[in-house]
């Protein structure tokens, strides 16, 4: 059993379709910790010590958010800036996250073919996520391919949300084929390399 | 009765007319009073007024002044001054006396007369110098502090001098002298507790008296003042303050000590008390009036007959005395490492002889030390030197200070760093105070609840008793140098009046004001407060936010909605502010009424359409693009 923590971050929950659906769905996944970051810190007064303890207490850290301007919502950045501090996540004595796993769960408004060198976003999605990838690497963590929904504005959230719940449960039970997963550029609900129990 | 009224009228007219003119001309109030006294002297002579008796009465102003000086001086500060007090002050008295005595010898006088004259003239005028220094804001400068040290030493030195002078008695004068003490308000008295006691007994009584003043100041005053303060009667507090000062002066006089010294000590003991500012502002008017009267009597007591007959020798003597005193002070200033401008302030400021000189002259005549022909001339020399002092201060101001100001940027007059005054320490001001203290700022709290004060003092807050709406109390608390005033008192009308006055008198001070309601916000706005905080608005908004959350709204949305509501409300408030007329009730102000109705209708309308205008703005953020937007983006790339 791996200890999973899911951080959900959306500043406008009432306008959210995909991410709100994901958040609702994981309510049914037993044995994981769930944090609505914007509800925990509506005034951005992040409790650094409590957050660091939470990270220590878990093996897989899942950050779930919509992609805003090719990055995360502001509070997630603030949370990383404050909580993943020197001496905790990196630098001298900064070994608290070593050996843990970071998984991003992202919804992108644009369709898949936009995220290509010849698409209107000019880059594939992973290159926009290199800051997170490097953050994980500097902290000694494994960076799983992100769980992605493209074309989120038109897509039906149901399959994506169910897939997300399956992914978290598989991570919890160590049923995800990590080697297979690492060979993929991104994870989607229909390509999850999960060994069924 | 009519005589008393006439005298009071004359002196008041003299002061009221002369002082504002002198101040306007930049001559300082002391010269104004002196000139008023000179102008009054023929009238007073015509009415056969005993000017000297009035002068003795007015000398009590000096006693009060030293009490006030003591209040400003923490015991630690006084202790830190000890080197200057003894070194600078002691050397000044000794050197000046020696030089003047030598001068008298050179003029062919007996050495005993020389020493007596030296002692008498070595004293400077506490009244003139302190009054002028505080008027010019120089008390805190290095030169001002040095001047004060010397003056304090001189005040203490008067007591041994009174013991020393009878030893200088001239055998052939003994028959002429009246014997006993001269009339004297500041030192010695006809009543005495120590007359006829042996030396050790006198010492014991003296030490006991001083101990009584210090112990009483430390342990008795607080409960006494708290009891008086609980009555909430201003005049009774003033009476208590007066009783306190006069009581100490009386005790000191009875044991043969300087009442000025006694009240000074009492002042130092009370310097840490929460009633300090209240005492200061209560005593200050009496001090000012009495000192003014004193200066006028100095001017009025000039013997113009004698002066006219011997103008040149007396004027020459006065100038010589001032040159010697000034020279000694400048020399000592160099030894004690005072910098340029401060050295000159000490030298020029203390070059005169002082009011204690009059006392000693009378005493010396009585003790058969001074021949009757020397005494009136000596009195004239003292008076003339006092009369010339304002001119020296003007010279310092116009010629010396600008030179040194330019050479070195002075730190002494820089505004105090971060001093904050909090008027009213209840539920509102208390929180502001805690926040400021937590951030390391120095605050002075004024409150009129004695019970509240005890609590604050117990927690180590610098709190003082007094009605913060009184101008003089705020002055005493240092509003002139403060950076910030927090007006947190309960009564809206008083708060507005306070803000208006401070904006007018001290426009430099930033004012944060507590408003009761919307109307009060406008009043404070019109009065000129910089930051106006409605006392319950923020907490109400937070309660509204909690209600949103309890009804199931996402906390971050609740937060944004609360912020949007606040912004909206403050904008409406600001829009109506210029239309508000403090002299007009809202219902009689048509422009205000019209706009208020418009805003209210807009808000109601917006609320009816789900959420209201503030809600719309709050949701502008983080709204995803529509699928159509995506197509456009893709097409434009084409």
Q: How is this structure best described in words?
A:
The complex is a heterodimer of chains A (197) and B (638). Chain A is α/β, with parallel strands linked by helices. Chain A is 33% helix and 15% strand. Chain A has helices spanning 18-25, 37-40, 48-56, 74-83, 125-128, 130-138, 157-172, 178-182; strands at residues 4-8, 32-36, 60-66, 101-107, 142-143, 147-149. In chain A, strands 1, 2, 3, 4, 5 and 6 form a 6-stranded parallel β-sheet that branches. The two termini of chain A are 13 Å apart. The mean pLDDT of chain A is 94. Chain B has helices at residues 2-24, 29-46, 51-58, 60-71, 75-80, 82-106, 111-122, 126-135, 142-164, 199-230, 234-254, 259-269, 276-300, 304-309, 311-335, 340-349, 355-366, 374-407, 429-438, 450-458, 471-476, 492-505, 518-527, 537-550, 555-576, 590-608, 612-618, 627-637; strands spanning 419-423, 442-447, 463-465, 484-487, 510-515, 531-534. Chain B has a 6-stranded parallel β-sheet, with helices on both faces.
Attribute tags:
heterodimer, A: 197 residues, alpha/beta, Rossmann fold, six-stranded parallel β-sheet, 8 helices, 15% strand, globular, B: 638 residues, mainly alpha, Na+/H+ antiporter like fold, 2 domains, 28 helices, 6 strands, 68% helix, 4% strand
């Amino acid at each position: 059993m791996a200890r999973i923590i899911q951080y959900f971050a959306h500043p406008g929950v009432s306008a959210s379709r995909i991410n709100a659906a994901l958040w609702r769905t994981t309510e049914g996944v037993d044995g994981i910790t769930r944090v609505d970051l914007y509800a925990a810190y509506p005034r951005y007064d992040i409790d650094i010590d409590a957050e660091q303890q939470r990270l220590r207490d878990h093996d897989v850290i899942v950050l779930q958010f919509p992609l805003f301007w090719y990055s995360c919502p502001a509070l997630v950045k603030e949370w990383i800036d404050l909580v993943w501090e020197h001496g905790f996540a990196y630098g001298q004595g900064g070994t608290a996250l070593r050996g843990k796993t970071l998984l991003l769960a992202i919804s992108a408004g644009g369709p898949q073919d936009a995220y290509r060198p010849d698409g209107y976003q000019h880059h594939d999605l992973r290159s926009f996520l290199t800051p997170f990838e490097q953050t994980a690497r500097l902290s000694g963590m494994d960076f799983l391919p992100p769980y992605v929904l493209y074309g989120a504005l038109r897509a039906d959230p149901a399959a994506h949300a169910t897939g997300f719940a399956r992914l978290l449960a598989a991570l919890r039970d160590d049923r995800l084929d990590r080697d297979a997963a690492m060979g993929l550029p991104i994870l989607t609900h229909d390509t999850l390399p999960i060994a069924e129990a | 009765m009519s005589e008393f009224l006439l005298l009071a009228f004359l002196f008041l007219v003299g002061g009221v007319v002369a002082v504002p003119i002198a101040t306007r001309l930049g001559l300082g109030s002391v010269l104004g009073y002196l000139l008023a006294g000179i102008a009054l002297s023929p009238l007073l002579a015509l009415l056969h007024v005993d000017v000297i008796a009035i002068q003795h009465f007015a000398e009590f102003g000096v006693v009060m002044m030293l009490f006030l000086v003591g209040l400003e001086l923490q015991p630690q500060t006084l202790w830190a001054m000890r080197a200057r007090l003894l070194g600078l002050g002691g050397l000044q008295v000794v050197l000046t006396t020696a030089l003047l005595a030598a001068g008298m010898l050179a003029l062919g006088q007996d050495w005993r007369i020389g020493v007596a004259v030296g002692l008498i003239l070595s004293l400077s005028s506490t009244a003139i110098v302190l009054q002028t220094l505080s008027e010019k804001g120089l008390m805190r400068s290095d030169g001002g502090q040095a001047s004060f040290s010397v003056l304090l030493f001189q005040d203490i030195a008067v007591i041994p001098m009174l013991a020393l002078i009878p030893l200088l008695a001239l055998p052939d004068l003994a028959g002429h002298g009246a014997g006993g003490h001269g009339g004297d308000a500041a030192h010695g008295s006809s009543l005495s507790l120590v007359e006829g006691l042996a030396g050790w007994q006198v010492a014991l009584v003296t030490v006991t008296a001083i101990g009584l003043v210090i112990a009483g100041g430390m342990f008795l005053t607080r409960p006494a003042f708290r009891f008086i303060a609980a009555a909430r009667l201003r005049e009774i507090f003033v009476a208590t303050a007066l009783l306190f000062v006069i009581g100490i002066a009386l005790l000191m006089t009875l044991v043969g000590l300087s009442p000025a010294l006694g009240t000074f000590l009492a002042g130092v003991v009370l310097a840490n008390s929460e009633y300090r500012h209240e005492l200061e502002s209560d005593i200050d008017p009496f001090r000012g009036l009495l000192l003014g009267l004193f200066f006028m009597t100095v001017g009025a007591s000039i013997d113009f007959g004698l002066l006219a007959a011997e103008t040149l020798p007396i004027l020459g003597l006065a100038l010589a005395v001032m040159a010697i005193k000034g020279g000694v002070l400048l020399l000592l200033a160099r030894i004690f490492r005072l910098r340029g401008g401060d050295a000159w302030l000490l030298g020029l400021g203390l070059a005169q002889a002082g009011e204690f000189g009059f006392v000693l002259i009378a005493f010396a005549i009585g003790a058969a030390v001074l021949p009757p022909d020397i005494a009136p001339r000596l009195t004239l020399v003292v008076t003339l030197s006092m009369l010339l002092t304002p001119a020296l201060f003007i010279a310092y101001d116009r010629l010396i200070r600008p030179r040194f100001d330019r050479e070195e940027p002075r730190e002494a007059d820089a505004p105090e760093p971060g001093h904050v005054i909090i008027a009213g320490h209840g539920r509102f001001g208390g929180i502001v105070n805690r926040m400021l203290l937590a951030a390391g700022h120095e605050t002075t709290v004024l409150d009129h609840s004695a019970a509240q004060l005890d609590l604050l003092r117990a927690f180590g807050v610098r709190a003082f008793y007094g009605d913060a709406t009184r101008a003089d109390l705020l002055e005493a608390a240092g509003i002139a140098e403060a950076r910030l005033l927090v007006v947190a008192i309960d009564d809206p009308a008083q708060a507005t009046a306070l803000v208006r006055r401070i904006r007018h008198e001290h426009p430099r001070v930033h004012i944060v004001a507590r408003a009761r309601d919307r109307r009060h916000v406008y009043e404070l706005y019109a009065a000129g407060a910089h930051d106006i905080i409605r006392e319950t608005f923020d907490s109400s908004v937070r309660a509204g936010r909690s209600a949103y959350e309890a009804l199931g709204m996402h906390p971050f949305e609740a937060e944004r909605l609360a912020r949007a509501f606040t912004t909206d409300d403050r904008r409406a408030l600001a829009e109506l502010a210029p239309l508000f007329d403090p002299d007009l009730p809202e219902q009689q102000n048509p422009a205000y009424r019209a706009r208020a109705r418009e805003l209210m209708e807009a808000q109601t309308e917006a609320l009816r359409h789900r959420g209201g205008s503030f809600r719309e703005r709050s949701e502008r953020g983080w709204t995803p693009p529509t699928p159509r937007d995506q197509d456009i983006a893709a097409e434009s790339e084409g």
